[in-house]
Structure formats: structure tokens, C-alpha cells
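Section 5: illustrative case.
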């Protein structure tokens, strides 16, 4: 079984379409989306339609929850708040219903899927250190856990002897590591923040025990032009070309 995991699309339909096109060349059996389909970009409804069509498993993200009023934006920064207000007004009834039906967590052995953290996924905490990662390993039972939320692709390994470290490659081959466990952040399709503007997603091959990131170029200028038209903050528009 070959999985494609996509996360943090953020209403960027150019990035999502480019990623889905790439997925279709990779012999993928199933696509799962780890949340934040909307927020920031100009095409929330179009992204929801494509995700609904292609992803049997979709996890709720904090921007998705905020856009339908399930989560207050009091902890959002001003740019994210402006984007959520616009998104809330733009969503169709169908899109709202779709987002309202999403789950916080899905266990697909040997993997657990959440948007933010396996520990209390409804609290939208961030994993930004090995200490926080080590803490979170206690809150899932599977060998792997896939997350999004920070928009930074990273693979954290917990060895059987409790050693924890960051895997220094964009590809992981773990058939000989049956006792190790992995916390893998999928990066972001629609707003990468690791100084690489190309859309990011991950492919997990459950039979071969491999995981690899893929980067897909898309028309950033077209996405930015649409965001300018709906008067999104310049900060949100400019960051896309720098991937930060
Ligand atoms: Zn996000």
C-alpha cells in the first residue's frame, strides 16, 4: 500500500492541483489530508472540492475549525485572523458542512494521523523541539505518527534505547529499524515555511517501509495575483515566493 500524505493546503489551489498531478504519477493507492485545507489563500471552496474528491481520509486543522466558527481566532496572529474572516465569508454551505464533519485523529495502523499533536490534538500545540517531540511519542501507540501544522518538514526518530534525533535526509528507509518509532511532519502544500517555495508532501510505502518527501513547483505568481485581488495582507502574499 502506497500512501500520499498532504497537509496545510491553505486554499492554494495552484499548489494543490500541482501536487495531485504529481501524486497521479507515483502509483499511489490512497491519499490522506492532514488538515488546514483553508485559510490564507483565495480558493477555499475549490480546494475543499478536490480534497473531498481525492482523499478518503481528511483530518481537521485549526484554520478549518476557525473558518466555520468551531475555534476562536483569539490565538491567531493578525494576518491569519484577516484570512479567516475572509474565508468564513467565502465558504459555500457545502464546504462548511464538509469541514464540520472532519475528525481530529485517524489511526491507520501502523500510522496515526493528526494535524497538530498526538497529545490533545484539539489544543493545536506545536512541536518545535526534541523535548516536545519526546513528550508526544507517549501519546500514540503506532510505529509512525504523521502531523502537519508547523509547515516545516521534519522526521524525528525515537530509537528503542530512547535516543531521539532528527533524521538528516528527505528519504527514510526503516525496514531494518522495526523497533524505532517515527514522528513525521509533512510540511505544507500551500504555504511552505522551510525556505523552499515548492509545494511539499510525503509518500509512505507501507510494504517497503519507506517514506520520502516530494517537492512540486507551481505557479506562485498566479496564486499571489488571486490573493492580491481579494486584498489578503502583503505579508501572506510575499511569503509564498520565499517559502517562509
Ligand atoms: Zn497550517
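Designed sequence:
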Amino acid at each position: 500500500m502506497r500512501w500520499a500524505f498532504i497537509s496545510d493546503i491553505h486554499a492554494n489551489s495552484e499548489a494543490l492541483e500541482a501536487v495531485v498531478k504529481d501524486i497521479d504519477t507515483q502509483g499511489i493507492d490512497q491519499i490522506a489530508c492532514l488538515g488546514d485545507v483553508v485559510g490564507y489563500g483565495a480558493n477555499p471552496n475549490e480546494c475543499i472540492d478536490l480534497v473531498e474528491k481525492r482523499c478518503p481520509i481528511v483530518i481537521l486543522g485549526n484554520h478549518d475549525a476557525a473558518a466555520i466558527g468551531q475555534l476562536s481566532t483569539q490565538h491567531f496572529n493578525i494576518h491569519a485572523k484577516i484570512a479567516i474572516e475572509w474565508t468564513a465569508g467565502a465558504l459555500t454551505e457545502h464546504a462548511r458542512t464538509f469541514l464540520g464533519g472532519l475528525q481530529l485523529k485517524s489511526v491507520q495502523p501502523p500510522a496515526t494521523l493528526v494535524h497538530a499533536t498526538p497529545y490533545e490534538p484539539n489544543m493545536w500545540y506545536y512541536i518545535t523541539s526534541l523535548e516536545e517531540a519526546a513528550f508526544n511519542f507517549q501519546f500514540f501507540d503506532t510505529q509512525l505518527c504523521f502531523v502537519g501544522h508547523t509547515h516545516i518538514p521534519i522526521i524525528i526518530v525515537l530509537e528503542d534505547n530512547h535516543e531521539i534525533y532528527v533524521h538528516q535526509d528527505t528519504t527514510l528507509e526503516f525496514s531494518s529499524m522495526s523497533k524505532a518509532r517515527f514522528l513525521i511532519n509533512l510540511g505544507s502544500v500551500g504555504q511552505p515555511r522551510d525556505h523552499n517555495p515548492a509545494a511539499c508532501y510525503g509518500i509512505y510505502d507501507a510494504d517497503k517501509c519507506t517514506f520520502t518527501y516530494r517537492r512540486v513547483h507551481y505557479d506562485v505568481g498566479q496564486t499571489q495575483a488571486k490573493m492580491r485581488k481579494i486584498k489578503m495582507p502583503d505579508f501572506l502574499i510575499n511569503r509564498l515566493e520565499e517559502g517562509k
